[in-house]
Amino acid sequence: MQERKVINTRKSKFVIKYSDSVTGLLRLSLFLVIGTALNGSSSQAASLEQYWDPTQGTPEADSGINVLASSGRQLFAGGSFSRIGGITAKGIAVWDGIHWTALGSGVSSDKVTSGVLAILPHEGRVYVGGTFTRAGDAEAAYVAMWDGTQWHAMGEGFNSKVLTLAWFKGSLYAGGGFSMSGNTSVQRVARWNGNQWVTVGSGVTRPRVEPISSPPNVFPIPGMDFEIVETATINALATNKRFLYAAGAFDKAGELTANSIAAWDGREWHALGKGLQQLKNGPPSFKVADLAVHQGKLYAGGIFRYAGEVAADGIAVWNGTKWANVGELPAHKIGLITKLVVNNDDLYVGGRFGRIGVAENDPELNKVAWWNGDQWAGLGSGPGNRGLLSLAVFEGALWVGGAIVTGPTPGLNNPSVFHLPGQLTFMRQDSELLLSWPRPDGILRIESTDRLAPASWVEVESVPQLLGHRWIVSEAITEELK
Q: Helix, strand, or coil here: 218?
Protein backbone atom coordinates (compact mmCIF):
# COMPACT_ATOMS: atom_id res chain seq x y z
CA MET A 1 0.00 0.00 0.00
CA GLN A 2 1.50 3.35 -1.02
CA GLU A 3 2.30 5.98 1.62
CA ARG A 4 -0.35 8.64 1.97
CA LYS A 5 -0.06 12.17 3.30
CA VAL A 6 -1.98 12.70 6.56
CA ILE A 7 -4.25 15.71 6.30
CA ASN A 8 -6.13 17.45 9.09
CA THR A 9 -9.44 17.74 7.34
CA ARG A 10 -10.94 20.00 10.02
CA LYS A 11 -8.95 22.90 8.63
CA SER A 12 -7.61 21.70 5.28
CA LYS A 13 -9.17 22.54 1.97
CA PHE A 14 -8.84 20.82 -1.39
CA VAL A 15 -8.88 22.14 -4.89
CA ILE A 16 -9.42 19.86 -7.89
CA LYS A 17 -7.87 21.26 -11.05
CA TYR A 18 -8.74 20.13 -14.54
CA SER A 19 -6.08 20.93 -17.14
CA ASP A 20 -6.04 20.12 -20.83
CA SER A 21 -3.45 17.42 -21.44
CA VAL A 22 -1.99 19.23 -24.44
CA THR A 23 -2.09 22.96 -23.67
CA GLY A 24 -2.10 22.80 -19.90
CA LEU A 25 -4.81 25.46 -19.91
CA LEU A 26 -6.76 25.47 -16.65
CA ARG A 27 -10.38 24.66 -17.52
CA LEU A 28 -11.95 24.00 -14.13
CA SER A 29 -11.01 24.87 -10.57
CA LEU A 30 -13.20 23.61 -7.75
CA PHE A 31 -12.78 24.60 -4.10
CA LEU A 32 -13.98 22.14 -1.45
CA VAL A 33 -14.23 22.64 2.31
CA ILE A 34 -14.01 18.97 3.24
CA GLY A 35 -14.60 19.35 6.98
CA THR A 36 -18.20 20.43 6.43
CA ALA A 37 -18.92 17.46 4.21
CA LEU A 38 -17.96 14.65 6.57
CA ASN A 39 -21.07 14.81 8.71
CA GLY A 40 -22.75 12.29 6.41
CA SER A 41 -21.49 9.10 4.80
CA SER A 42 -21.19 10.70 1.38
CA SER A 43 -21.80 13.95 -0.43
CA GLN A 44 -21.82 15.15 -3.99
CA ALA A 45 -19.38 18.02 -4.29
CA ALA A 46 -19.88 19.65 -7.68
CA SER A 47 -20.23 19.17 -11.39
CA LEU A 48 -17.56 18.33 -13.92
CA GLU A 49 -17.84 18.70 -17.64
CA GLN A 50 -20.25 16.25 -19.28
CA TYR A 51 -19.05 14.48 -22.39
CA TRP A 52 -19.17 11.33 -24.51
CA ASP A 53 -16.28 9.14 -23.41
CA PRO A 54 -14.12 8.17 -26.41
CA THR A 55 -12.33 5.46 -24.43
CA GLN A 56 -15.48 3.48 -23.71
CA GLY A 57 -17.41 1.46 -26.23
CA THR A 58 -14.43 -0.43 -27.61
CA PRO A 59 -15.62 -3.80 -26.23
CA GLU A 60 -18.02 -4.32 -29.11
CA ALA A 61 -20.58 -7.08 -29.34
CA ASP A 62 -21.05 -9.13 -32.49
CA SER A 63 -24.77 -8.31 -32.55
CA GLY A 64 -27.18 -5.79 -31.09
CA ILE A 65 -27.42 -4.85 -27.40
CA ASN A 66 -31.15 -4.92 -26.66
CA VAL A 67 -31.17 -4.16 -22.94
CA LEU A 68 -28.91 -2.65 -20.26
CA ALA A 69 -29.64 -2.89 -16.52
CA SER A 70 -27.49 -1.70 -13.60
CA SER A 71 -27.38 -2.94 -10.02
CA GLY A 72 -24.77 -1.68 -7.57
CA ARG A 73 -21.33 -2.19 -9.08
CA GLN A 74 -22.62 -4.30 -11.97
CA LEU A 75 -23.96 -3.41 -15.41
CA PHE A 76 -25.78 -6.18 -17.30
CA ALA A 77 -26.06 -6.23 -21.09
CA GLY A 78 -28.44 -8.46 -23.01
CA GLY A 79 -29.04 -9.09 -26.69
CA SER A 80 -28.54 -11.58 -29.47
CA PHE A 81 -24.74 -11.44 -29.33
CA SER A 82 -22.44 -14.41 -28.81
CA ARG A 83 -19.34 -12.33 -28.01
CA ILE A 84 -18.86 -9.03 -26.20
CA GLY A 85 -15.68 -7.32 -25.04
CA GLY A 86 -13.54 -10.10 -26.44
CA ILE A 87 -15.21 -12.87 -24.42
CA THR A 88 -17.72 -15.56 -25.34
CA ALA A 89 -21.07 -14.66 -23.80
CA LYS A 90 -24.33 -15.94 -25.30
CA GLY A 91 -26.99 -13.31 -24.99
CA ILE A 92 -25.98 -11.82 -21.65
CA ALA A 93 -22.87 -10.52 -19.88
CA VAL A 94 -21.98 -8.32 -16.90
CA TRP A 95 -19.51 -5.41 -16.69
CA ASP A 96 -17.90 -4.63 -13.30
CA GLY A 97 -16.28 -1.39 -14.40
CA ILE A 98 -13.13 -3.15 -15.62
CA HIS A 99 -14.01 -6.53 -17.18
CA TRP A 100 -16.88 -8.24 -19.02
CA THR A 101 -17.92 -11.64 -17.62
CA ALA A 102 -20.33 -14.22 -19.03
CA LEU A 103 -23.20 -15.59 -16.96
CA GLY A 104 -22.44 -19.27 -17.31
CA SER A 105 -23.05 -20.50 -20.83
CA GLY A 106 -25.77 -17.89 -21.39
CA VAL A 107 -29.03 -18.46 -23.27
CA SER A 108 -29.84 -20.21 -26.54
CA SER A 109 -32.65 -21.64 -28.64
CA ASP A 110 -33.14 -24.35 -31.25
CA LYS A 111 -36.45 -22.90 -32.45
CA VAL A 112 -35.99 -19.15 -32.85
CA THR A 113 -33.25 -16.57 -32.94
CA SER A 114 -32.10 -16.46 -29.36
CA GLY A 115 -31.88 -13.16 -27.53
CA VAL A 116 -32.28 -11.41 -24.20
CA LEU A 117 -34.85 -8.60 -24.14
CA ALA A 118 -35.37 -8.00 -20.40
CA ILE A 119 -33.03 -8.11 -17.39
CA LEU A 120 -34.02 -7.55 -13.75
CA PRO A 121 -31.37 -7.88 -11.01
CA HIS A 122 -33.01 -8.39 -7.61
CA GLU A 123 -31.52 -9.39 -4.24
CA GLY A 124 -28.51 -11.18 -5.69
CA ARG A 125 -30.42 -12.93 -8.45
CA VAL A 126 -30.83 -11.94 -12.09
CA TYR A 127 -34.15 -12.56 -13.85
CA VAL A 128 -33.99 -12.65 -17.64
CA GLY A 129 -36.61 -12.72 -20.39
CA GLY A 130 -36.41 -12.86 -24.16
CA THR A 131 -36.69 -15.22 -27.11
CA PHE A 132 -34.60 -18.11 -25.78
CA THR A 133 -35.70 -21.64 -24.86
CA ARG A 134 -32.61 -22.73 -22.89
CA ALA A 135 -30.57 -21.02 -20.16
CA GLY A 136 -27.32 -22.82 -19.42
CA ASP A 137 -28.26 -26.50 -19.09
CA ALA A 138 -31.86 -25.76 -18.13
CA GLU A 139 -34.85 -25.94 -20.45
CA ALA A 140 -36.25 -22.46 -19.92
CA ALA A 141 -39.04 -21.19 -22.17
CA TYR A 142 -38.48 -17.44 -22.63
CA VAL A 143 -37.73 -16.70 -18.96
CA ALA A 144 -35.00 -17.84 -16.54
CA MET A 145 -33.19 -16.98 -13.32
CA TRP A 146 -29.42 -16.76 -12.65
CA ASP A 147 -28.55 -17.34 -8.97
CA GLY A 148 -24.96 -16.18 -9.27
CA THR A 149 -23.65 -19.64 -10.09
CA GLN A 150 -26.09 -21.37 -12.42
CA TRP A 151 -29.27 -20.94 -14.44
CA HIS A 152 -32.72 -22.13 -13.38
CA ALA A 153 -35.98 -22.54 -15.28
CA MET A 154 -39.05 -20.80 -13.87
CA GLY A 155 -41.94 -23.21 -14.02
CA GLU A 156 -43.12 -23.98 -17.53
CA GLY A 157 -42.17 -20.57 -18.82
CA PHE A 158 -44.25 -19.16 -21.69
CA ASN A 159 -45.27 -19.85 -25.26
CA SER A 160 -43.78 -16.63 -26.67
CA LYS A 161 -41.30 -13.86 -25.94
CA VAL A 162 -40.91 -11.96 -22.67
CA LEU A 163 -40.29 -8.24 -23.22
CA THR A 164 -40.27 -6.78 -19.72
CA LEU A 165 -39.89 -7.76 -16.04
CA ALA A 166 -40.70 -5.92 -12.81
CA TRP A 167 -40.86 -6.54 -9.07
CA PHE A 168 -44.09 -5.42 -7.37
CA LYS A 169 -45.32 -6.05 -3.81
CA GLY A 170 -42.99 -8.99 -3.24
CA SER A 171 -43.62 -10.76 -6.55
CA LEU A 172 -41.99 -10.95 -9.97
CA TYR A 173 -44.14 -9.93 -12.96
CA ALA A 174 -43.47 -10.59 -16.63
CA GLY A 175 -44.97 -8.95 -19.69
CA GLY A 176 -44.65 -9.69 -23.39
CA GLY A 177 -46.33 -11.36 -26.33
CA PHE A 178 -47.20 -14.65 -24.63
CA SER A 179 -50.65 -16.06 -23.92
CA MET A 180 -49.97 -19.34 -22.08
CA SER A 181 -47.74 -20.77 -19.38
CA GLY A 182 -48.11 -24.51 -19.75
CA ASN A 183 -51.88 -25.03 -19.62
CA THR A 184 -52.56 -21.75 -17.81
CA SER A 185 -53.91 -18.76 -19.73
CA VAL A 186 -51.79 -15.69 -19.01
CA GLN A 187 -52.70 -12.97 -21.47
CA ARG A 188 -49.51 -10.95 -21.99
CA VAL A 189 -48.84 -10.45 -18.27
CA ALA A 190 -48.20 -12.97 -15.49
CA ARG A 191 -47.07 -13.18 -11.86
CA TRP A 192 -44.58 -15.69 -10.48
CA ASN A 193 -45.89 -17.17 -7.19
CA GLY A 194 -42.68 -19.05 -6.42
CA ASN A 195 -43.74 -22.24 -8.18
CA GLN A 196 -45.63 -21.26 -11.31
CA TRP A 197 -46.83 -18.34 -13.42
CA VAL A 198 -50.37 -17.20 -12.64
CA THR A 199 -52.76 -14.80 -14.33
CA VAL A 200 -52.96 -11.09 -13.48
CA GLY A 201 -56.68 -10.49 -13.56
CA SER A 202 -57.52 -11.80 -16.99
CA GLY A 203 -54.55 -10.04 -18.57
CA VAL A 204 -54.72 -7.59 -21.46
CA THR A 205 -56.36 -8.18 -24.83
CA ARG A 206 -57.07 -6.61 -28.19
CA PRO A 207 -60.43 -8.14 -29.19
CA ARG A 208 -60.59 -6.95 -32.77
CA VAL A 209 -61.32 -8.85 -35.96
CA GLU A 210 -59.83 -6.37 -38.41
CA PRO A 211 -56.72 -4.25 -37.83
CA ILE A 212 -57.13 -0.48 -37.93
CA SER A 213 -55.01 1.40 -40.46
CA SER A 214 -53.22 4.56 -39.51
CA PRO A 215 -55.26 7.64 -40.52
CA PRO A 216 -53.47 10.04 -42.88
CA ASN A 217 -50.72 12.15 -41.27
CA VAL A 218 -51.17 10.47 -37.91
CA PHE A 219 -48.22 8.12 -37.71
CA PRO A 220 -45.31 10.10 -36.23
CA ILE A 221 -42.59 9.05 -38.68
CA PRO A 222 -42.89 10.76 -42.06
CA GLY A 223 -43.46 8.49 -45.02
CA MET A 224 -44.47 5.48 -42.91
CA ASP A 225 -47.88 3.98 -42.31
CA PHE A 226 -48.67 1.17 -39.89
CA GLU A 227 -51.64 -0.95 -38.95
CA ILE A 228 -52.64 -1.69 -35.39
CA VAL A 229 -52.15 -5.43 -35.12
CA GLU A 230 -54.83 -7.72 -33.75
CA THR A 231 -52.74 -9.36 -31.04
CA ALA A 232 -52.03 -7.50 -27.82
CA THR A 233 -48.59 -7.10 -26.29
CA ILE A 234 -47.05 -5.61 -23.16
CA ASN A 235 -43.77 -3.86 -23.87
CA ALA A 236 -43.08 -2.19 -20.52
CA LEU A 237 -43.78 -2.54 -16.81
CA ALA A 238 -43.03 0.08 -14.16
CA THR A 239 -43.86 0.30 -10.46
CA ASN A 240 -44.38 2.58 -7.52
CA LYS A 241 -45.59 1.61 -4.07
CA ARG A 242 -49.23 1.57 -5.15
CA PHE A 243 -49.39 0.33 -8.74
CA LEU A 244 -47.81 -1.91 -11.32
CA TYR A 245 -48.14 0.00 -14.59
CA ALA A 246 -48.36 -1.99 -17.83
CA ALA A 247 -48.14 -0.50 -21.31
CA GLY A 248 -47.87 -1.74 -24.86
CA ALA A 249 -50.58 -2.30 -27.46
CA PHE A 250 -53.98 -3.39 -26.14
CA ASP A 251 -57.61 -2.30 -25.86
CA LYS A 252 -58.65 -3.92 -22.58
CA ALA A 253 -57.12 -4.77 -19.21
CA GLY A 254 -59.37 -7.47 -17.86
CA GLU A 255 -62.87 -6.26 -18.75
CA LEU A 256 -61.84 -2.63 -18.45
CA THR A 257 -61.36 -0.40 -21.50
CA ALA A 258 -57.75 0.76 -21.29
CA ASN A 259 -56.07 2.28 -24.31
CA SER A 260 -52.58 0.75 -24.33
CA ILE A 261 -51.85 1.53 -20.67
CA ALA A 262 -53.31 0.38 -17.34
CA ALA A 263 -52.48 0.06 -13.63
CA TRP A 264 -52.72 -3.09 -11.48
CA ASP A 265 -53.06 -2.62 -7.71
CA GLY A 266 -52.60 -6.30 -6.81
CA ARG A 267 -56.31 -7.11 -7.07
CA GLU A 268 -57.80 -5.30 -10.06
CA TRP A 269 -57.01 -3.20 -13.12
CA HIS A 270 -57.49 0.58 -13.38
CA ALA A 271 -57.63 2.79 -16.45
CA LEU A 272 -55.42 5.88 -16.70
CA GLY A 273 -57.99 8.28 -18.04
CA LYS A 274 -58.56 7.67 -21.73
CA GLY A 275 -55.08 6.24 -22.11
CA LEU A 276 -52.78 6.78 -25.07
CA GLN A 277 -54.37 7.13 -28.49
CA GLN A 278 -53.72 7.92 -32.13
CA LEU A 279 -56.70 10.29 -32.36
CA LYS A 280 -58.56 12.09 -29.61
CA ASN A 281 -61.31 9.68 -28.56
CA GLY A 282 -60.00 7.36 -31.29
CA PRO A 283 -58.03 4.12 -31.59
CA PRO A 284 -55.38 3.20 -29.03
CA SER A 285 -51.67 3.77 -29.44
CA PHE A 286 -49.79 1.75 -32.01
CA LYS A 287 -47.13 1.06 -29.41
CA VAL A 288 -46.12 2.29 -25.97
CA ALA A 289 -42.47 1.30 -25.90
CA ASP A 290 -41.35 2.18 -22.38
CA LEU A 291 -42.37 3.58 -18.98
CA ALA A 292 -40.54 5.32 -16.16
CA VAL A 293 -41.63 6.60 -12.75
CA HIS A 294 -39.97 9.98 -12.17
CA GLN A 295 -40.57 12.41 -9.26
CA GLY A 296 -43.81 10.61 -8.39
CA LYS A 297 -45.18 10.78 -11.93
CA LEU A 298 -45.47 8.17 -14.66
CA TYR A 299 -43.85 8.90 -18.03
CA ALA A 300 -44.75 6.95 -21.16
CA GLY A 301 -42.97 6.98 -24.50
CA GLY A 302 -43.84 5.39 -27.82
CA ILE A 303 -46.04 5.91 -30.88
CA PHE A 304 -49.12 7.97 -30.03
CA ARG A 305 -50.51 11.45 -30.65
CA TYR A 306 -52.84 11.95 -27.69
CA ALA A 307 -52.73 11.22 -23.96
CA GLY A 308 -56.31 11.44 -22.83
CA GLU A 309 -57.55 14.78 -24.17
CA VAL A 310 -54.05 16.26 -24.47
CA ALA A 311 -51.91 16.38 -27.60
CA ALA A 312 -48.70 14.59 -26.61
CA ASP A 313 -46.62 13.42 -29.53
CA GLY A 314 -44.71 10.33 -28.48
CA ILE A 315 -44.23 11.15 -24.79
CA ALA A 316 -46.65 12.01 -21.99
CA VAL A 317 -46.83 12.17 -18.20
CA TRP A 318 -49.57 10.95 -15.82
CA ASN A 319 -49.72 12.69 -12.42
CA GLY A 320 -52.17 10.24 -10.87
CA THR A 321 -55.34 11.99 -12.05
CA LYS A 322 -54.70 13.38 -15.54
CA TRP A 323 -52.35 13.35 -18.53
CA ALA A 324 -50.07 16.18 -19.68
CA ASN A 325 -47.57 16.62 -22.48
CA VAL A 326 -43.84 16.88 -21.76
CA GLY A 327 -42.55 20.10 -23.22
CA GLU A 328 -42.75 20.56 -26.96
CA LEU A 329 -41.91 17.29 -28.67
CA PRO A 330 -43.69 17.21 -32.03
CA ALA A 331 -43.79 13.64 -33.27
CA HIS A 332 -43.15 14.47 -36.92
CA LYS A 333 -39.78 15.83 -35.81
CA ILE A 334 -38.60 13.23 -33.36
CA GLY A 335 -39.85 9.83 -34.50
CA LEU A 336 -40.18 6.86 -32.19
CA ILE A 337 -39.21 7.06 -28.50
CA THR A 338 -37.99 3.64 -27.39
CA LYS A 339 -36.40 3.95 -23.94
CA LEU A 340 -36.75 6.02 -20.76
CA VAL A 341 -34.40 6.00 -17.76
CA VAL A 342 -34.35 8.09 -14.57
CA ASN A 343 -31.24 9.37 -12.79
CA ASN A 344 -31.74 11.47 -9.65
CA ASP A 345 -33.91 14.41 -10.74
CA ASP A 346 -33.44 13.91 -14.47
CA LEU A 347 -35.20 11.86 -17.13
CA TYR A 348 -33.28 10.60 -20.18
CA VAL A 349 -35.05 9.54 -23.36
CA GLY A 350 -33.70 7.50 -26.26
CA GLY A 351 -35.10 6.61 -29.64
CA ARG A 352 -35.05 7.39 -33.33
CA PHE A 353 -35.16 11.16 -33.40
CA GLY A 354 -32.94 14.07 -34.33
CA ARG A 355 -34.58 17.31 -33.20
CA ILE A 356 -36.73 18.81 -30.46
CA GLY A 357 -39.06 21.70 -31.18
CA VAL A 358 -40.43 23.00 -34.44
CA ALA A 359 -37.92 25.73 -35.30
CA GLU A 360 -35.01 24.86 -37.54
CA ASN A 361 -32.58 26.37 -35.04
CA ASP A 362 -33.83 24.21 -32.18
CA PRO A 363 -31.17 21.83 -30.82
CA GLU A 364 -30.25 18.62 -32.57
CA LEU A 365 -30.60 15.70 -30.17
CA ASN A 366 -29.26 12.74 -32.11
CA LYS A 367 -31.20 9.89 -30.51
CA VAL A 368 -30.80 10.88 -26.82
CA ALA A 369 -32.48 13.76 -24.94
CA TRP A 370 -32.53 15.04 -21.37
CA TRP A 371 -35.61 16.40 -19.55
CA ASN A 372 -34.82 18.30 -16.34
CA GLY A 373 -38.46 18.86 -15.40
CA ASP A 374 -38.73 22.18 -17.23
CA GLN A 375 -37.10 21.84 -20.63
CA TRP A 376 -35.42 19.50 -23.09
CA ALA A 377 -31.72 19.45 -23.97
CA GLY A 378 -29.44 17.29 -26.04
CA LEU A 379 -26.39 15.32 -24.94
CA GLY A 380 -23.59 16.62 -27.11
CA SER A 381 -23.21 14.93 -30.47
CA GLY A 382 -25.28 11.90 -29.49
CA PRO A 383 -24.23 8.23 -29.57
CA GLY A 384 -23.60 7.99 -33.31
CA ASN A 385 -25.29 6.03 -36.08
CA ARG A 386 -27.12 3.51 -33.93
CA GLY A 387 -30.51 1.94 -33.68
CA LEU A 388 -30.88 2.87 -30.02
CA LEU A 389 -32.42 0.02 -28.03
CA SER A 390 -31.35 0.48 -24.42
CA LEU A 391 -30.32 3.00 -21.76
CA ALA A 392 -28.95 2.58 -18.23
CA VAL A 393 -27.17 4.76 -15.67
CA PHE A 394 -24.09 3.09 -14.20
CA GLU A 395 -21.47 4.71 -11.94
CA GLY A 396 -22.18 8.25 -12.97
CA ALA A 397 -22.54 7.61 -16.68
CA LEU A 398 -25.37 7.06 -19.13
CA TRP A 399 -24.76 3.88 -21.12
CA VAL A 400 -26.39 3.58 -24.53
CA GLY A 401 -26.76 0.26 -26.32
CA GLY A 402 -28.11 -0.73 -29.68
CA ALA A 403 -27.05 -1.76 -33.15
CA ILE A 404 -25.19 0.24 -35.75
CA VAL A 405 -27.46 0.54 -38.77
CA THR A 406 -25.30 2.79 -40.98
CA GLY A 407 -21.73 3.94 -41.17
CA PRO A 408 -18.38 2.45 -42.13
CA THR A 409 -18.41 -0.45 -39.65
CA PRO A 410 -21.87 -2.05 -39.66
CA GLY A 411 -22.11 -5.03 -37.35
CA LEU A 412 -20.05 -3.47 -34.57
CA ASN A 413 -22.35 -2.85 -31.64
CA ASN A 414 -20.29 -0.86 -29.18
CA PRO A 415 -22.00 0.62 -26.13
CA SER A 416 -21.64 4.41 -25.96
CA VAL A 417 -20.99 6.14 -22.64
CA PHE A 418 -21.95 9.69 -21.69
CA HIS A 419 -20.61 11.12 -18.42
CA LEU A 420 -23.37 12.99 -16.66
CA PRO A 421 -22.90 16.32 -14.87
CA GLY A 422 -22.63 16.51 -11.11
CA GLN A 423 -20.56 13.37 -10.66
CA LEU A 424 -17.57 14.62 -8.68
CA THR A 425 -18.12 12.95 -5.31
CA PHE A 426 -16.31 12.60 -2.02
CA MET A 427 -17.03 10.13 0.75
CA ARG A 428 -15.64 9.28 4.14
CA GLN A 429 -15.00 5.54 4.49
CA ASP A 430 -13.56 4.58 7.89
CA SER A 431 -10.27 6.54 8.09
CA GLU A 432 -10.13 7.25 4.37
CA LEU A 433 -11.39 10.24 2.46
CA LEU A 434 -12.32 9.09 -1.06
CA LEU A 435 -12.80 11.43 -3.98
CA SER A 436 -13.85 10.28 -7.44
CA TRP A 437 -14.80 11.86 -10.74
CA PRO A 438 -15.47 10.83 -14.34
CA ARG A 439 -12.57 10.53 -16.72
CA PRO A 440 -12.16 13.83 -18.61
CA ASP A 441 -10.35 14.60 -21.86
CA GLY A 442 -7.42 15.90 -19.87
CA ILE A 443 -5.69 15.63 -16.50
CA LEU A 444 -7.15 16.14 -13.03
CA ARG A 445 -5.08 16.69 -9.92
CA ILE A 446 -5.82 17.47 -6.28
CA GLU A 447 -4.10 20.12 -4.18
CA SER A 448 -4.45 20.86 -0.47
CA THR A 449 -3.90 23.87 1.78
CA ASP A 450 -4.52 25.08 5.32
CA ARG A 451 -4.73 28.71 4.14
CA LEU A 452 -6.37 30.33 1.16
CA ALA A 453 -3.27 32.24 0.04
CA PRO A 454 -2.50 31.28 -3.60
CA ALA A 455 1.10 30.30 -2.87
CA SER A 456 0.08 27.89 -0.11
CA TRP A 457 -1.45 25.18 -2.34
CA VAL A 458 0.52 21.91 -2.47
CA GLU A 459 -0.20 18.87 -4.64
CA VAL A 460 -1.73 15.93 -2.81
CA GLU A 461 0.81 13.11 -2.78
CA SER A 462 -1.63 10.31 -3.60
CA VAL A 463 -1.74 9.68 -7.32
CA PRO A 464 -5.26 9.32 -8.76
CA GLN A 465 -5.97 5.72 -9.73
CA LEU A 466 -8.10 4.80 -12.72
CA LEU A 467 -10.88 2.36 -11.78
CA GLY A 468 -13.17 1.52 -14.65
CA HIS A 469 -14.23 4.85 -16.08
CA ARG A 470 -13.65 6.89 -12.90
CA TRP A 471 -10.58 8.35 -11.24
CA ILE A 472 -10.23 7.61 -7.51
CA VAL A 473 -7.95 9.29 -4.97
CA SER A 474 -7.87 8.54 -1.24
CA GLU A 475 -6.21 10.25 1.71
CA ALA A 476 -5.86 9.13 5.31
CA ILE A 477 -7.67 11.43 7.74
CA THR A 478 -6.86 12.14 11.36
CA GLU A 479 -7.84 9.80 14.18
CA GLU A 480 -9.99 12.47 15.84
CA LEU A 481 -12.43 12.36 12.92
CA LYS A 482 -13.10 8.62 13.17
A: coil
